[in-house]
Amino acid sequence: MQDYLKMLISLGYKRFYQKGEILFFEGEIPKQLFVLLSGKVRVYKTIEETQKTRGKNTKKIAREQTLHCICAPNFIAEMPSFLNQAFPASATCEEECEVLEISLSTFQKHCIENPSFCHTFIASLCNKIKVLESHIAQNSLSLKERLVEFLRANEAELSNLTQRQIAQRLNTSAESLSRILRELKAQKILSTQKGKIVFKG
Length: 201
Known about the structure:
Elements: H1 5-9, E1 13-17, E2 22-24, E3 32-38, E4 40-52, E5 58-71, E6 74-76, H2 78-83, E7 90-93, E8 97-103, H3 104-113, H4 115-138, H5 143-153, H6 163-169, H7 174-186, E9 190-193, E10 196-199
Antiparallel strand pairs: 1-8, 2-7, 3-6, 3-8, 4-5, 4-7, 9-10
């Protein structure tokens, strides 16, 4: 990917996004291909759930289910963009981001004219498939197992993550996460310092 960045930059234009800005919403038709040059983007789906209230009443609430967090440099939602299909999820900037936007016709023409670049693009698609497979596999694990796996895989990043962000990544509530954290603390698998998690596993 790094080898092709200069070439890709010559094909499109850069835009800067603030933390919390939306790149695209689920259901939108792609108008360009996004390449994340710096920052981090979270891809998520909005799920509507029914929640019981007092008595027999219920209300519907919307919950965000995180599918993937993309770090630069990387393509964003390249499959729906390339196939001109609606985005299957939404994307938001987790921090300030620099994003390269390339028109779809320009990108497709470039792929046809540069077979070697196609291999890089295909590799990116394969990596996203691995992410999907991992997401499916994690659904069979308990929250405790998913949390331990997450802490192990992201140990170097824990000092920058709040417990709320971790709960969001694991698609659970802050209350459920706190309960599991207490269990793991009692087992001396982790500790907390100034609200941040220190993994000892």
